[in-house]
Amino acid sequence: MPVPEIGAPAPDFTLQGVLFGDGGTAERSQYSLSAHQGTPVVLAFYPGDGSSVCTKQLCSYTSDLDRFRDVGATVWGINFSDLDSHESFARKHDLRFPLLADTDRSVVRAYGIQMPGLGLKRSVFIVDADGVVRWKHVARIGLTYQDSDTITKELAALTRR
Which of 88, 98, 114, 145 could be cross-linked to 57 through a Cys-Cys bond (beta carbons 3.0 to 4.6 Å apart)? Predict the structure, then answer.
């Protein structure tokens, strides 16, 4: 499938996810994009739990969660790892947003970011409160990532529309 265009409806999905919370608890539940309408969502697709670049990326987003909240957004991390892997990764690095398990790769395919033999392209999509893709960055090589400054700037622009 092709990467969704800016202004197009975001492909809907429901995935199991884990959220590491205060007191060391990890809550597992379902996350549906369509059920989250009303608030912008940052979908951060990352190749692997525990890799160095992915760890830096997700730790930076956790450090800046208040900035995302200030512009009314939620962050979800997504990759192929299972919930046990996500929970371990979140616990080790104190990640404070949901990590979703796309174990059958259906969401990665729907967003057109699969890389045969390698997994997925590091990508970030901003989905607005109406479920429409408003910004995206799909990396050719996933050695860098979009920082919180760039993403929150794009999110702030949504509120001015």
Answer: 145
